[in-house]
Amino acid sequence: MPSEQFPFSKKILGSSYEELLDATIMIVDDEPSTIGVVQAFLEEAGYCRFVTVSDSPTAMEVMERERPDILLLDLMMPEVSGFDILAAVRAHPKFERLPVIILTAYSDSVNKLRALDLGATDFLAKPVDPSELGLRVRNTLAAKAYLDHLTFYDRLTGLPNRYRFFEQFDLDLQAARRFGDRLALLNIELDTFDRIRDTVGVAAADEVLRQVSARIVRAVRGCDVLARTPSGFSEESGLYRIEGGVFSLILYRIESAEAAALVADRLVQAIREPLQVEGSDHFVKASIGIAVYPDEATSGEELLRLASSAKDYIRREGGDCFLFSSPAINTAYQRRRQIEAQLRRALADDEFSLCYQPKVDLNSGEIVGVEALLRWQRGEQGTVEPEEFIPVAEETGLIVPLGEWILRHALAQLGAWQAAGWKKLGLSLNLSARQFLEQDFAVLVQRAVDRSGVAPELLTLEITENLLLQRVDDKIKVLERFKEMGLRLAIDDFGTGYASMTGLGRLPLDELKIDRSFIQKLPEPTSGVIVSSIIFLAQRLGLRTVAEGVETREQLEFLEDRLCNTYQGYLHSRPLASSEVEAMLAGPKKGRAG
Q1: What is the DSSP secondary-structure string of 490-546?
Q2: Could you say which of 49, 53, 181, 273 is the most buried, measured as most Cβ atoms within 10 Å of its Cβ?
Q3: pLDDT (tens digit, 9 = 90+) per residue, 497-513?
Q4: Close Cβ partners of 193 (under 8 Å, ≥ 6 residues apart)
Q5: pLDDT band at 202 (very low <50, low <70, confident <90, very high)
Q6: Measured between alpha carbons, how far is 49 from 33 in angstroms, rounded to an integer?
Q7: If you ran DSSP here, which 8-state letter would residue 415 be given?
């Protein structure tokens, strides 16, 4: 089967020696020195993944957790012997095919025959010869890879089959439980596959399946809402062919159920595109049922039942669509789709506005800046809360044109305030991850600032910590470009993400914004320690601090005592319309900032 047509087909033997070196090798021996020698020999041969056990009673428990590709097993051990472990391995449904190489100092035929009778794959005499060890392990793993491919991979599509699916689904669920992750199971059935097979014959139907399989894999890989993890996830795409025109897709570590819906929607659209087979166009539709762990169920059996039931229901309704097994999730997703459509119209109809929350200097009490906040008023239907529409805008990419709208209107307003005499008033804007990753975003910002005539040092761009989790060096280059323009940079909601202290020192920042969740619990001891530490850290790094969500005098006094620089929150003011900001700036107590 051509690899260019099926990039997900697994390579076996040949160039797969490098793949064999990624195998997990488990060594069970009551002598730690022997384990060390064997591991050292194998490391010299290029292997890098090892699980070692010197306490034989724990061997099966460790094996359950680690799922090795090969077991090197000593026979003569106290408490639980290698014979006992070998018998347990062969009696275990998940390990009955696991290669087991016996390491033994005994040369008598009785022990060898007993081990062979229990299912040993091969023998190695102690002390181990490094060349022989490497050869035996390599040949055993290669044979296992070949047999696994015959057993666990579909010859028609190159996808892992139903046997591999059940094995991997169990592993993924275990990993999801261990790490507290969310997992989605998609049951996919081609609605018209039986008709195509009956009409055009088996050969053409097989080609349809091959093309659809490759199309699904490309669609899954193209989704940017998915996360991958090495824990419990080994298949490249997560797609399995179960039987006929039925597939299962495991989406591991998704942020929300809506992310699974985005993938399913992309799959439905990709599958319905016409296929060229034997010079004719063929049209295929798919029905997809979705079940989410742990939102809808926590057991594999229940997730399988729910996804299948949802798929069967949507298929009876005409197919070419997807459905969650949970009515609540379906309702939430339909609401999300409704908001997406309304967002697109709102951009065209100019239904958005900006309000501004003052940022106040703790020493002088003066307003030194404002944070621009987006608001959406849908006529008689009322206000749509940012918490409801901003995530949808992020997922759909609409945040990019929305961000351009905010930048343009906020800078125009800042220019108007400067013309009115408030020449030192600063403006803060939040950047989304989607905006930041746009290739020409820095150019767009430069043009907007130039056209506005606003002094660039009055504009602060706020990013979140989590934006800096990956490809930090590339993102630092973008931040440095903003600094070259003269802009100020801040990390928003600091303390809730995963920025490392080492990484923080590399960033060209001007301020840290302390997340409101910590401020609102002040002066509670735990939050007090966190807030004090953030302020101290910022001072040592030469950064200003901004406290968000200040609502009480007690919170404000705590911040004053710790020498926080600036605050914003309802204690001073709710977010205001531009005219209200002007009235506050002109008030007798506040004066003008410039």
Answers
A1: EEEEETSS---HHHHTTS--SEEEEPHHHHTTTTSHHHHHHHHHHHHHHHHTT-EEE
A2: 53
A3: 545 555 677 788 999 99
A4: 205, 208, 209, 244, 245, 284
A5: confident
A6: 18
A7: H
Element (H, E) at 378: none
CA distance 75 to 96: 18
- Backbone φ and ψ for 238, nearest 5 degrees, come out as 85, 5
**CA 36 – CA 43 distance, rounded (Å):** 10
Cis peptide before 523 (omega within 30 of 0): yes
Per DSSP, 160 falls in state B
DSSP 8-state code for residue 78: S
Q: Mean of the pLDDT values across residues 354-369?
A: 93
Residue spans of beta strands (DSSP E) within 61-119? 70-74, 100-104
Interatomic CA distance for residues 209 and 244, integer angstroms: 9
Containing 594, the helix (H) or strand (E) segment is none
At 336, which amino acid appears?
Answer: R
Alpha carbon dihedral 67, 73, 76, 78, in 10-degree steps, equals -20
CB 121 within 8 A of CB 71: no
Q: How far is CA 393 from CA 223, 334, 335, 339, 388, in A?
A: 16, 15, 13, 9, 9
Quote the tokens at residue 422.
């408030």
Q: Are strands 122-125 and 100-104 parallel, antiparallel or unpaired?
A: parallel
Per residue in 103-158, pLDDT (tens digit) is 887 667 788 888 888 999 998 888 889 999 999 999 999 888 888 888 888 889 98
Q: Global pTM? A: 0.54
* 389 and 432 Cβ atoms separated by less than 8 Å: no
68 touches 98 (CB < 8 A): yes
Q: Which residues contact 116 (CB under 8 A, 6 or more apart)?
A: none
pLDDT at residue 7, as a whole number: 34
Q: Which of 321, 187, 293 is nearest to 241 (CA)?
A: 187
Ramachandran quadrant class, 102 (left: phi over 0; alpha: psi -120 to 50; beta: rest): beta
Nearest to 303, CA basis, from 217, 187, 225? 187
Are 294 and 172 in contact by the 8 Å Cβ rule? The answer is no
The token duo for 240 is 């399995």
Amino acid (one-letter) located at 421:
G
Token look-up 């920042």 returns 509
What is the separation of C-alpha 26 from the centre of its chain, rounded to a whole number of angstroms? 30
CA distances from 157 to 24, 135, 217 (A): 27, 32, 11
Cis amide linkage into residue 294, ω under 30° from 0: yes
